[in-house]
Amino acid sequence: MSRAGPQGHGHEQDHAVRVQRIVTSGTFSLDGETFDVDNNVWLVGDDEEVLIVDAAHDARTIHKAVAGRHVTAIVCTHAHDDHIDAAAELSVLTGAPVLLHPDDNELWSFTHPGRKPDGELRDGRILAVAGIELQVIHSPGHTWGSCCLYAPFLDTVFTGDTLFHGGPGATGRSYSDRPTIEASLRNRLLTLPGNTVVRTGHGEDTTIAAERPHVPTV
Questions:
Q1: Cβ(2)–Cβ(22) under 8 Å?
Q2: Which residues on neighbouring strands pair with residue 22, listed in sequence order?
Q3: Into how many domains does the chain fold?
Q4: Which domain covers residue 163, as residue numbers?
Q5: Burial of 67: CB neighbours in 10 Å, binned 0-12, 13-18, 19+
Q6: Edge-to-edge strands, sheet with 98-100
Q7: CATH code at 136?
Q8: Are 116 and 105 in contact (CB under 8 A)?
Q9: Which tens digits make up the pLDDT trace of 57-97?
Q10: CA distance linking residue 162 with residue 164, whole number of Å
Q11: What are the distances in angstroms from CA 53 to CA 22, 50, 62, 83?
Q12: pTM (global) more than 0.90
């Protein structure tokens, strides 16, 4: 099940670049438990090419939203199964490489034991699509390889499960750590401009300014 819609902001229309949200439904499993979840899948691009953030649950629906555009990359903000379960199939459908931070390779292997990611996300790496740049910010804590994508031109950061409306992403499960995610937020994300829109892995958007009070200062 899914639904999709445009999420315009900032200078997107000036550059013909747009952000599209697709909500897909499935499950998240870890540590012997399984939960029903709705995920945000993000498409960033123009009429010619697009970058996909988090290929969750439904490769066919995501591929339909691509609508024939060239896919430059399928970026995985982290390797929990609900964010990557459609990545391999979507890569076949689009021919696009799957990118993941190597610190999450073990988690990835639980979902895709016979296939490795095609490339690595590294802190500071720049990904280009439709004439704009997105910077990789390594933000461990929710998982060791969690990354965010900062698009200054769009005044937007894609945070996966690192930052939500209401504060930090969940910890307490395997491969996570609360002090680490709080340090990532203080040092890597909350230093972004306050008007930066936070596009999350689940739920509604927020802003950097709105979330600063929800992260401990020490």
A1: yes
A2: 4, 41
A3: 1
A4: 2-214
A5: exposed
A6: 2-6, 18-30, 33-45, 49-53, 70-75, 98-100, 119-120
A7: 3.60.15.10
A8: yes
A9: 999 999 999 999 999 999 999 999 999 999 999 999 999 99
A10: 7
A11: 10, 10, 11, 9
A12: yes
